[in-house]
Design a protein that fits this description.
Layout: H1 3-13, E1 19-23, H2 29-37, E2 42-45, H3 48-54, E3 63-66, E4 84-88, H4 91-104, E5 108-113, H5 127-136, H6 139-142, E6 146-152, H7 161-180, E7 190-192, H8 199-204, E8 209-212, H9 214-217
Parallel strand pairs: 1-2, 1-8, 2-3, 3-4, 4-5, 5-6, 6-7
Length: 226
Amino acid sequence: MDVSDQIKHIRATLPQSVALVAVSKFHPVETIMEAYGAGQRIFGENRIQELAAKQPMLPGDIEWHFIGTLQTNKVKYIVPFIHTIQSIDSRNLLEKVEKEAARCNRHIRVLLEVHIAQETTKHGFSADECRTIVRETQWATAYPHLILAGLMGMATFTDDKQQVRREFQSLRTLFDELKTTGAVGDSFAELSMGMTDDYHLAIEEGSTMVRIGTAIFGKRNYKTIH
């Protein structure tokens, strides 16, 4: 199936309450336009340089999500157009995004990335760190240009589906806990978890947003973004 068919096929498997983020990293603008032509408007990227190069060449109504590790010194390159940063993994990064968003007079949605996997190579706050940030931060005062929209997490890359399910359950439990404490506002509504190999499990465990690349675009093209 081509990209358009893949988009339609995947959408048919998603509940209406679950948003699809098409992960377009390492794929050229022509391929992204195929997905756009099929009605896809939310795209995820994880490399600053690549995203900054692609964005001007693509339609302005695309909702760009940054989903990778974000270095503080590169925040300024995406803040003028980014819709959501899903990978907030430190207070320093929160403060830098706030500073750049204020400079651009923009409001940016952010998700706190929580480390739920056994792999140490993955990033994110611990559950306790996340609780502390949410409960002890006067968000409107500390980060007036940032909208706390929810949590994001990546499960362990493993064939053990029960382990993956437990990790997703742990994130859902934390999400529900924070949402019911009154420490967050109505904007706290997104639980971003699930990728090509595990998004069905993630949806079963309460995901509201899945990040799918390979199942839409096929294997990545590392040679060019043009």
